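Lay summary. Proteins are chains of building blocks that fold into shapes, and those shapes determine what they do. In this project we predict the shape from the chain. Here is one chain we studied, written as its sequence of building blocks.
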Amino acid sequence: MLEHNVEQALRALGVSDGDRIAVACSGGADSVALLHLLAHRGVHVLHVDHHLRAESSADATFVEGLARGLGLGCRVLHVYVRRGKGESLEAAAREARYSALEQARTDLGVDWIATAHTRDDQAETVLLRLLRGGSLAGIAPRRGPIVRPLLGFGRDELKDWLLARSIRWHEDPSNEDVALERNWVRKVLLPAMRDRRGGVAKVLARAADHARADAEALDEIVRALLGRVVVDEAGAFLPMPELDPLPLALRSRLVRTTLRRIGVDPTSTELEAVNALRVGRRARCGGVRVDRTPGGIVFAHDPLPVPDVLPLPASGTIESRAWGIRVRVGPAGAAPWVWRSPLTGEPAAIRSRRAGDRVSTAAGTRKVQDVLVDAKIPSSLRDLVPLVATGPDALAVVGLTSYPVASGTVVDAEPCSATWSRKVLWTRSSA
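And here is the predicted shape, written in a compact code that computers can read:
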């Protein structure tokens, strides 16, 4: 009966009869049961040795012997866990494990990797995430090429199946260490909850199913909204006026997905800070500065990839995609472009602002910083606003100020092929 139910679970996950499968086998009861249940498919066996215990090689030897006894190929994957700042050992090991499994899947040319997560694992994960303030969606039955056909089955059910067939498994002694949070949940918290309510694992797994269904529905809506997000090398812009009425769950997902698109996975605290932003306020998510503007939210890498200094010709037109502008130097009698300023001195160039820069205006000299603030250029994008300069001196801020002198030579500018971060200069009212 168990065999039939597992095959049904595989089909429900999209696995066809002819698909090639690798089974991730640790040597524990759950993964040994999965391996035996799928052995008739001619699966390949993968064992990940994290080298976190001196005796970990014994697990690898056991799994190799198990695979050999079933006539199956086996590959031991050696990973060395390196924790990032603030990252738990468990999270770092999981990341290393799945990276190694995906590489092995590619090398072997298999379609799927089956892991032995059970209903009990699901219950533990829900509790852990609840304790940590995370999502209750739990473990997904399928994520990309990873399938988990045992999520509907209890750990005791699998052990009974193994015992009835005199099949041995290998216990990991570190699973008894309740100093590790998951082990504490497994050995202390869940048993206490079962004493009060016997079917608690099923209840928690069902809650995870409901939470995951809700999350999938929200993610589908967010995917439709993502078409409004624009991304370039500076970061991303999320238009918000029409999105402000969205429920918090949708806005949070949209912000999180936008940040992930530019390489940042925000913490819950960072996400809350972004959601709470008011116009004119700023926050930070990792290496990204976040500005709330009247038209939306600006996510900019810090430091910004500032374009190189662009020398201007003595006469003629030059275009810079990096700066997002087309510039013409010529006689004052020519028809003006979007922006114009008299030009004196040479060599002239387009460059970013520098500390202490001031420009002359009809009302007197002003700090470039003040010009950009008054123009409501988001602080995180101000280094991308082009200045016209001669030598060390700033003459004018493109699009914002004009050099107040009489001159037969002028510099004109207009936007060209401008990405979202460059367009902010020309569309400030909506940025």
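What the prediction tells us: The first helix runs from residue 2 to 12.
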